[in-house]
Amino acid sequence: MRLGRPLAPGVAVARAYCPDQGPVHGPARQLDPTKTPDQIRRFESACAAAAQELDARIAHTVAQLGQQNDTTILHTHRQMLADPTLADKVKLAIRDHGLDAGTALQHVLEGYESQFAKIRDEYLKQRVADLRCVVGFVLRHLQGRQSSAPPFGPDEPVILVTHEVLPSHLLLSQHFRLAGILTEVGAETGHAAILARSLGIPVLAGLPGILDEVRTGDMIALDAHEGQVHINPDFEVQTTYRRLQQAEAERRDRLAGNRDQEPVTVDGTRVELLANVNGADDAALASQVGAGGVGLYRTEYLFLTHPGMPDEEEQLATYRAVVEAAPGRTVTIRALDLGVDKSVSYLGRHDEPNPALGVRGTRLLSASPELAQTQLRAILRAGRYGRVSLLLPMVSALEEVRWAKGMLDDARLSLRRQGEPFAEDMPLGVMVEVPAAVACLDDLLEEVDFVSIGTNDLIQYLMAADRTNPQVAHLCEPSNPAIWRVLHRIIGVCIGRGKPVTVCGELAGQPQSFLPLLGLGLRRFSMSPALVPLFKDLVRHSNALEARAVAERLMRMKTAGEIRDCLAEETDRLMLHSCIKF
């Protein structure tokens, strides 16, 4: 037995399929300068062939499944392939470095990988997997290789064993029934992992060397709840896992049935389950799983993946796509929140001594008024296509909100003068993620329409502890009394002033935090789309009055140990009535 890291929960027993993986990395080859035009033509031909392949697979998937949303990631890959920036970089590498087309393409991919590796936000870091998919398509055509199908029947379940799970593994596996995935590397914030969770496909990562141990046809039993995998298990282990698999299937069917159910507690309290997204594909997934809307759309991904400042039309097209894909076309768009580990070279910003306390969020926008004005205009214009709200990040003073409102007035005035239609009455909110915002919350609420609590940064700043530092990360766990007292104040003040309040940090997606948050009066939770079905089941087995009693008991506790025990006890009790396995 080997132990791995679960990325998507579930149990599976099936034969292994170890396909030829992705690009074949060969030694770099220097070109004779006279061969440069030929290599550029080879690259362009391979791109055209890859585009035709993607178009055909999109059409096939729509024809087979009848659901346009199931091809969203394929459309994303098609758009990436059509982006001239990637092609221009490859052609430049061919011309300036004398590389053949395949080596140049790998060189450009490695540059992107290096850039994304510096990002500490795991969700954004894992977006490079989408680029690897696109590069893999082009390289395969450059190398004249065809995609291979497993040597099994189309109805026989298989467990894919690969170095890294890519979105194309999930959406293009039309030759076989995918029962599970084992990978050497991977993160739970990757597109493929998120999609796997929504499809009920278990994924177990963190298995270095697994490709050396497994061969196509080997029997595999995996439990992506406990993080266990057995290679060629005996009959007894197979039987045990097949029983677990059957129980898992019944549990999954029950959760799937929640999609159109209202998230209402047993005593009639309605809860809104919203989704955190980074783009249109995430928003489409939120619709598929039954989310009530998008509670947080992070716009920085567009900027991080763009070679230069996205212009207004480009931003408008991106924001409109998210709005049109979102559940009920309801989206809260957060203004650009670059800074700390998320930076772009074209803004000309340099390293800061302490970037976590530096120019980020609304501070960056106020320091770059042209950037702010362009984004605000695009967001206002996108507001025509749905119910769109604007969220200001990293607010620490009332003056920052008033400055932003002034910029919004300027954007509206310029749009009116140009005759551009836009959303006239767009709600404005603030992220409460700085202790200063908690202290002056009453003043901020006089200027805004709603509040979103960014618990990730709020807890980090409150505890003066870097959550990525293993020596102090325990201080950021949701068991510290100070954290709950601050949340109690924020939620209570917002309720008292009649202002909607949402938790959109990791805390909103942690089952052990659900009951106390509900008991404090929170009614809006924004989380990864993949978690929505699970939390809908949680809500429907919860009692708001009992949750209030839990919160009151928790607020009297003075140590992290007491709170930790309380959360564990209440979560276990809730599990007795729910189909969720944490």
CATH architecture of the largest domain: Alpha-Beta Barrel
For this structure, what is the CATH homologous superfamily of the largest domain?
Answer: Phosphoenolpyruvate-binding domains
Cα distance spanning the termini: 22 Å
Helix content: 40-55%
Overall number of domains: 3
Low-confidence stretches: 20-27, 65-69
Cα shape:
globular
Whole-angstrom Rg: 25 Å
Number of helices: 24
> Major sheet: size, sense and barrel closure?
8 strands, mixed
Overall number of strands: 16
CATH first level of the largest domain: which class? Alpha Beta
User: Average pLDDT, to the nearest integer?
Assistant: 84
In CATH, the topology of the largest domain is named: TIM Barrel
Structural class: alpha/beta
Please, could you describe this protein's structure?
The protein has helices spanning 36-65, 72-82, 84-97, 101-117, 122-125, 128-142, 167-171, 191-199, 210-213, 235-256, 280-288, 300-304, 312-325, 362-367, 369-382, 398-418, 435-439, 441-445, 455-463, 481-496, 511-519, 532-540, 544-555, 560-575, and strands at residues 2-3, 5-8, 11-17, 157-164, 177-185, 203-205, 219-223, 228-231, 272-277, 294-298, 330-334, 387-392, 428-432, 450-453, 501-503, 524-527. It is globular, with a radius of gyration of 25 Å. Helices cover 48% and strands 14% of the residues. It has 582 residues and is α/β, with parallel strands linked by helices. The strands form 2 sheets. The protein has an 8-stranded mixed β-sheet. An 8-stranded parallel β-sheet has the order 15-14-13-12-11-10-9-16. The chain has 3 domains: 2-19 and 149-256, Glucose Oxidase, domain 1; 33-142, Enzyme I, Chain A, domain 2 (Orthogonal Bundle); 272-575, Alpha-Beta Barrel (TIM Barrel), CATH 3.20.20.60. Helix 4 runs antiparallel to helix 6, helix 15 packs across helix 16 and helix 21 packs across helix 24 (560-575). It has 24 helices and 16 strands.
